[in-house]
Specification:
This protein is of the alpha/beta class. The chain folds into 2 domains: 1-140, P-loop containing nucleotide triphosphate hydrolases (Rossmann fold, 3-Layer(aba) Sandwich); 191-330, no CATH class. It has helices at 22-33, 61-67, 79-90, 130-135, 146-158, 165-183, 280-286, 297-304, 314-334, and strands at residues 10-15, 48-52, 95-101, 106-113, 118-123, 138-144, 192-198, 211-218, 227-228, 235-237, 251-260, 263-272, 287-288. β3 (95-101) and β4 form a beta hairpin. α1 (22-33) crosses α9 (314-334) and α5 packs across α6 (165-183). It is globular, with a radius of gyration of 20 Å. The structure holds adenosine-5'-diphosphate and 6-O-phosphono-alpha-D-glucopyranose. 6-O-phosphono-alpha-D-glucopyranose is lined by residues 18, 54, 61, 71, 100, 102, 105, 124.
């Protein structure tokens, strides 16, 4: 393993079930860290590298089928290798990482991963193994309710991949026991959870397109939680009116303290859709501790990718807020500054 001159890389873990928006979120994070991504299996940019933990499957698709184990089962994942490689990257060393080929279902020859300033490990189990968890400087869990997960799967797998509704529902059900046993519990102790739920603004909503998004921010961390108006208070806010244009069904914010499993958290909730992204500056003005570097940076980040999934609702907003916290954490750990990226 060759060494590099990158000191103190930061390692971030992003966990979620498949199809829950990890790649979409990480594109937003790349925007904040200004990553130019190279071609190839693993996105390796000039600042951030994103490692997909599917690459540490112990067996190919056929092997898993023969052994009757799902990819979510820890026995199907090589945690020892994952740990050794992430540790090496954190020490500024290059590694030869295996590749799981999602098209063929086989394990391809390994590829060279060079150290980088920020390494993101994303997948089903970044915080499952205690030694891996210990390596991570910042952890995020994307928590979709079943209704939303099904709606997104239908959108992707039915509309774009020709699967039937029955197939999609059966696949979610068959994964459920392992998901609940090995993936979902990781959310109990992470720095930030983004919960994505159906809206409360439309009674009996069947489409599940309007979302209620809750950002749970652990209080006891090195970065301060984002708050609305008054830190520690409980606040409901409907900003629609003279300063914020709202279409149907409008937008509603909630902020306040809560307990999540064993942790004190603060919750920022955004229910509904934004009608005009450029007006997000009004919302930004009322949020504090956003870790922006200049007035309007949060809005600018949203405007950068207006058509990215979630840009006009709380998912896009929370993606940006989490990414800004990651940047602040990087600066705290390394003592280095990340220049804000121009729009
Ligand atoms: P993962 O990387 O976790 O498998 P993706 O980022 O590929 O998930 O997203 C899975 C699907 O969900 C895609 O079709 C994507 O467009 C959709 N999606 C992701 N994030 C959002 C969002 N915030 N709002 C709506 N759809 C989304
Ligand atoms: C799911 C998991 C992935 C895994 C894949 C393997 O999508 O979320 O982490 O790599 O299953 O399934 P496959 O169809 O390739 O056997």
């Amino acid at each position: 393993m060759a060494s590099s001159n990158i000191e103190k890389p930061m390692i971030i873990g992003v966990a979620a079930d498949s199809g829950c928006g990890k790649s979409t979120f990480l594109r937003r994070v790349s925007g904040i860290f200004g990553t130019k991504v190279s071609q190839g299996h693993t996105p390796q940019g000039d600042f951030m590298t994103v490692i997909c933990l599917d690459d540490f499957h112990t067996q190919d698709r056929k092997g898993r089928a023969a052994a009757k184990v799902t990819a979510l089962d820890p026995v199907a994942n090589n945690f020892e290798l994952m740990y050794q490689m992430c540790k090496a990257l954190k020490e500024g060393k290059s590694v030869m990482k295996p590749i799981y080929n999602h098209e063929t279902g086989k394990i391809d020859p390994p590829e060279l991963i060079n150290p980088n300033h920020v390494i993101v490990v994303e997948g089903l189990h970044p915080m499952y193994d205690a030694r891996m968890k210990e390596l991570l400087d910042f952890t995020v869990y994307l928590d979709l309710s079943d209704e939303v997960k099904i709606a997104w799967k239908i959108q992707r797998d039915m509309a774009e991949r020709g699967h039937t509704l029955d197939n999609i529902l059966a696949s979610i059900e068959s994964r459920r026991p392992d998901f609940e046993a090995y993936v979902d519990p990781q959310k109990r102790d992470v720095d930030m959870v983004m919960q994505i739920l159906p809206t409360n603004l439309i009674p009996d909503d069947t489409e599940k397109k309007v979302l209620r998004v809750r950002l749970l921010q652990k209080e006891d961390t090195d970065v301060d939680a984002v708050y609305l108006y008054d830190e520690g208070s409980t606040i409901d806010w409907v900003p629609c009116g003279k300063k914020l244009t709202c279409g149907y069904p409008g937008i509603k914010f909630h902020y306040g303290p809560d307990t999540y499993f064993d942790n004190e958290v603060s919750v920022l909730e955004v229910d509904g859709n934004f009608a005009k992204l450029e007006e997000m500056i009004y919302v930004e003005t009322h949020l504090n501790n956003t870790s922006t570097k200049f007035y309007g940076e949060m809005t600018q980040q949203l405007l950068k990718n207006p058509n990215a999934p979630g840009s006009s609702n709380g998912t896009g907003l929370c993606q940006v807020l989490i990414a800004l916290k990651m940047r602040e954490m990087y600066e705290k750990i390394t003592g280095r500054k990340v220049l804000p990226r121009a729009a």
